[in-house]
Amino acid sequence: MVIRALFLSLAVFGFALTSMGQVLDDPTEEARAQALMRELRCVACENEPISQSSAAIAEDMRARVRVMVGEGASDGEVRDWFESRYGEFVLFRPKRTGLEGFILWGAPFGLLVIGGLIAFGLARRRKAGAEPVAPDEI
Amino acid sequence: MIEFGHLAAFLALAASLAQGVLGLTGARALAGRAAVVAFAVMALSFATLLVAFAQSDFSLALAANNSHTLKPMIYKLAGVWGNHEGSMALWCLVTLGFGAAGALWMRTGRDVFEARALGVQGWLATGALSYLLFASSPYLRLDPAPLQGAGLNPVLQDVALASHPPMLYLGYVGFSFVFALAAAGLIDGRIDRVWAKEARRWALAAFIPLTIGIALGSYWAYYELGWGGWWFWDPVENASLMPWLIGAALLHSVVVTEKRGSFAAWTALLAVLAFLFSIMGAFLVRSGVLTSVHAFAVDPKRGMLLLGGLVVYGGLALGLFALRAPKLEGGKPWQMLSREGALATNNVVLVVAALTVLLGTLFPLIAEATGRTISVGEPYFRLTFVPMLAVLLAVLPVVQAWTWGKADLSGVWKWAAGGVGLVAVFLLLGVSVWDIPLGAAFGLALALWLIFGALWEVRRRAVTLARVFRLPLRVWGMTLAHIGLGVFIMGAVVETTQRYEATLALPAGGSGTVAGWNITLNDVHAIEGPNWYADKAVLTARKGSIKAEMAPTKRYYPASRMPTTETAIHKTGAGDLYIALGDRRDVDGETRWVFRVYFNPLIDFVYLGVGLMALGAFFSLVPMRRRRTA
């Protein structure tokens, strides 16, 4: 387990080495780890994902993501681990649970449906006598 | 000098008040003269601020807090608007500028209507100037004057960012005049073709600088923040995107009102909303209610005043709208499958997209009230905002040839089949040959589909090659804007899905490999600028026969004790090799430098696409001006 050995060495040297962002050997796993890093929020920064923060805690969090991905954890498991540790705040991809989650994820779709119905309703009321006319300019 | 400027701003306030009163009573000529006078004295007032900054007159509190003798001249001048008070002065100047421009160039032939538009603009200017003079005055003196200033925020000392606020404000505040036109039209009870023709010009005049301003801010974030990305879905960025989306909806809706007399109430509502969203953007950025990486000049009290202004102006305008909208004339009949129906769909999606950005931006605040701390970031917008716009754009080539009133549907199936076929081919290629995500394959197909559709429409309208160049400029404007969207999508999709990033920790003489580039650190040495000192790394990047010297730098500005990243970017046809210098680490007695290395493929397409959209909007504006002044 190269990754495990890597993590042990990281633990020994402290964050001086973790900051170097040793990448995972498998490019697919590394890509997945980077994608996860882009949607986890740095808990010490203003409004930044851990993928783009120089804070020490972000470095530790990045290392943790790589270790978990290297050990075969799924995206959901990584998110759950961070949520249990730092709270829902850490997820830039908000959860769909609860009333808040329902409103946040449902509203765009609901608004599109309402808007579409209004447009159809208007068109129905105004369609009597519609004649095709070619646009002169735009 | 500054006292003179202060006095001039009060004179501008008096002139705006006069413009407001005279305008609403219907005195077109007098209100117009007041508008020009107000702009002229405010320009003088703003000039005194520029002079104080140019001369580093630190008895001016604003200069003492935001300038420094050692700054290059361009940043001394840009320092005027690189802070809250000065940027409000710029906001006022632009408001008055649009009032004066309106006084000189409105051509509806309706004196009372034009007077009222100037009147409403006068009241908007009165509000802005009162806020400037009584709540955030840039004209205050310091006694005793300090010998040295505190310096402009170092990350703002940059050409793109120095020009970003003026452009953005031309856009935001440009919508104030569209708002004024809508209010005057509603008072009149006439939102008709003549009104739409006028409103469209001013909406374009605001939309063009807003587009450029957003692009400049994004480009700045790309090379200055050092994280390789160009859009972060940060509240401050979202605050500028919302009025842009509403403005884009307005530009499509106002055409229906101009050509067919339909959508009158809806167009007026969008004209009002574009400016309300602009004020709301200012409120979100300035009040500190949202955490953002680059919110500046945060002060809750000023935020409350801005919110108050938003409520008063918004309440009045929407109240007026509710009174008058039911009485507006309806225009020519149309059915859903028609040009009107297509543009209605465009408007529903663009407005819902803007509301989605609003919801995502404000939701953390709303959730906090219920006790949940939620973060809304890029994944949310990628899964809501992006698909709805993708569907809208996928339909565009199919419906763009549709006639007003009622579409001729005979060719539709061919187009739909062509689109579906193109997407299918790309999805197949994406999975089997290119090995890219399905979303990326779909995005690329969409981009080509849009560009092809826009070109096909030119061919259809022109019929023969000789007539291509005789098409109205407005058609070219539309075509360029839609091609620009396609180019933008291509760049955005490729950049976000194929970007490669890695971190290298190199000792002097060491090298590493990133995305096929061999990168060698030759040396790191200290350098000094006028008001900063820096670590400059000299690297050689090699790939095949390409060899590039790159020098990412990390600057420290002693005046404000802040570091900034100066990234090194090597442009190739395929994209940017991008290197940012990070921290220095000492490991086992060896000094290593940390570099963040990115390869950002097709990033230039993002900015080229946005540039084409702005150029398209410009083409749409020009011919109308030419015809009118002739």
Please sum up the structure shown.
The complex is a heterodimer of chains A (138) and B (630). Chain A is built from six helices and no strands. With 138 residues, chain A is mainly alpha-helical.
* Rg value of chain A: 24 Å
Secondary-structure element sequence of chain A? HHHHHH
Q: Count helical runs of chain B.
A: 19
Taken from the alpha-carbon principal axes, the silhouette of chain B is globular
CATH topology of the largest domain in chain A, which one? Helicase, Ruva Protein, domain 3
**Tally of helical segments of chain A:** 6
Low-confidence stretches of chain A: 1-20
Describe the biggest sheet of chain A? none
Secondary-structure element pattern of chain B, one letter each? HHHHHHHHHHHHHHHHHHEEEEEEEEEEH
The tally of strands of chain B reads 10
Question: Structural class, from helix and strand content of chain A?
Answer: mainly alpha
The CATH C-level name of the largest domain in chain A is Mainly Alpha
Topology record:
The complex is a heterodimer of chains A (138) and B (630).
Chain A: H1 2-13, H2 15-18, H3 27-38, H4 56-70, H5 75-86, H6 98-126
Helix pairs in contact in A: 3-4
Chain B: H1 2-25, H2 28-54, H3 61-66, H4 73-78, H5 84-105, H6 111-135, H7 159-188, H8 193-224, H9 235-260, H10 264-287, H11 300-324, H12 339-369, H13 378-383, H14 385-399, H15 412-434, H16 438-462, H17 465-468, H18 473-498, E1 500-506, E2 511-514, E3 517-528, E4 533-543, E5 546-550, E6 553-557, E7 562-566, E8 568-572, E9 575-587, E10 590-601, H19 603-629
